[in-house]
Every structure is written in structure tokens, then in C-alpha cells.
Amino acid sequence: MGGNIFIQTFGNFDVLIDGNPVHFSSAKSKELLAYLVDRQGSLVTRAEAFAALYEDEDYTRSRQKMFDVVVRRLKANLKEAGIEDIFDMQRGSMSVVKDKFGCDLYRFLEGDIRTVNSYRGEYMSSYEWAMFTEGLLSQEKY
């Protein structure tokens, strides 16, 4: 296992090991992990994840193959960082394994006062689909 893993969702999304950011070879593979973190360990089908990441695209056969590359890159990046056990795949569905890492979103939802106070109204700013959770967090805090 790759040390102390922390996933930052407030502001921009980042995966940190002992405070150092993990490198992702593609923006979409990083976004896929961000989406799975947002889903808080729930199983997400490939089609659901595709729809979130490519909101205006149809899930055609060629798009499925393109998405397979995104998933493979994510797995490879996590393996390279020594943290592949934070990601789980089961029969076409995927999730994160919540108890394998710390996360500001999860601490916020558990009511950790320090984390709640650190929230400044920005949640995974780079991702359109994150606006729903951002609204919920802002409601919860205020």
C-alpha cells in the first residue's frame, strides 16, 4: 500500500499520498476516480460513469471501447502509485473502497467540525456533474 492516502474534493480534486499528488496519465481517468469518490463507495455501472463523464455523447460500441481505455488507465495509474486497492470492479460495475483512504467529503458528511469549517463552497470545481453535491454541501454547512 502506498502510504497515507488522502483524497481532496474541496476546491480541485486531488489524490495525495503522504501529501504528494498522484499523477494521472489522462484527465478522464482522474475524473472517473473523482466521480466514484463522489458516489461514496456505491457501485456505478460503466454506462452511468460514461454518462457523467461524457454527458452529451451516446454510449455506442466505439465509445465503450474508448471508455475501456479510460478505466485501464485509471487502474494502471493507481497500480503505479501503489494504491490500486482503493478501486474495485465487479461485473461491469465499479466503486471506490472508502475505508482505504481519507477524504474531506466523507469527513464533512460524518460531521467532522474542522472539515465542515474548512469547506469554502467549492467542491471538485473542474467537474460539471459535481455541482449537485456542491449544492448539498453548501446547504448542509449553512
Please explain how this structure is put together.
With 142 residues, this protein is α+β, with helices and mostly antiparallel strands. It is built from six helices and seven strands; from the N terminus they run βββαβααβββααα. Helix 1 (27-38) packs across helix 3. The radius of gyration is 15 Å and the shape is globular. The protein starts with a strand and ends with a helix.
Q: What amount of the residues lies in strands?
A: 15-25%
Helix count, DSSP H or I runs of 4 or more residues: 6
What's the helix-strand series? EEEHEHHEEEHHH
Total beta strands: 7
Low-confidence stretches: none
What form results from the Cα inertia axes? globular
- Mean pLDDT across all amino acids: 92
Cα-to-Cα separation, first versus last residue? 37 Å
Structural class: alpha+beta
Strand count, sense and barrel status of the largest sheet are: 4 strands, mixed
**Measured on Cα atoms, how large is the radius of gyration?**
15 Å
- In spatial order, strands of the major sheet run 3-2-1-7
Helix content: 40-55%
Q: Keywords, please?
A:
four-stranded mixed β-sheet, three-stranded antiparallel β-sheet, 142 residues, alpha+beta
Topology:
Blueprint: E1 5-8, E2 14-17, E3 20-21, H1 27-38, E4 44-45, H2 46-53, H3 61-81, E5 87-90, E6 93-96, E7 102-103, H4 104-109, H5 113-118, H6 131-141
Parallel strand pairs: 1-7
Antiparallel strand pairs: 1-2, 2-3, 4-6, 5-6
Helix pairs in contact: 1-3
